[in-house]
Amino acid sequence: MTHTLNAPRANPASAPAAVLPAARSGARGRGLMGGAVVAGPVFLLAGVVQGFSRDGFDFARNAISQLALGDGGWIQTVNFLLTGALLTAGAVGLRRELSGGAGGTWGPALVGVFGASFWAAAALPADAGAGFPVGAPDTTVMSGHGAGHMLAGMVGYVALCAVFVVLARPLAARGHRAWAVASRIAPAVVLAGFMASAASVLAFTAGAGLGLVWLAAVTARLAGDRSERPGLAA
Fold this sequence. Notes:
This protein has 234 residues and is mostly helical. The chain has helices spanning 14-53, 73-98, 106-123, 144-173, 177-195, 201-223.
């Protein structure tokens, strides 16, 4: 009598368990990316609320950074620190999401630099001037910490503009062509606001605000992409 040896059958229950760690890792990555999604809106909302509630502050004359000065300035300092922490978490999430694909190295690194610039801005407050805080002269006298604050902002927003160019690659690879084009255009608008800052503080605020909002939008787009691998369309 001959015996037929049957090949062992795979246990269906084991398949989900095999992919569970990867699924959990992806979920954690998308969760951390949420930091970069909310960072900009939180920073701007806190700045706008403070700007309308602080005596002597005028959005046409004063930068949001100056809210860290005077009584109640600690709120804006916390806002800087919190935003930096959220962006750092977002950088870690982007690293996990884009690992091994387009933009997987420089995108997260540049978001991390942008986040660090907010911590530097908290440590090096802007100079008083343009009538804020109340009693400050109209003319701003540059100090060492004020120059450091400006340098931190410049480095941070240059890094942010570079982020948009880098993240245009994974956006295009996943089939989001319009998003990729807009991400390549966004740096020009942000930098235009900075270049116009000498003539209008509002232009500077608008350019910086646009950069924060666009980073939130792009990160949300990538986090919402269900592709397992960068390069596959959503």
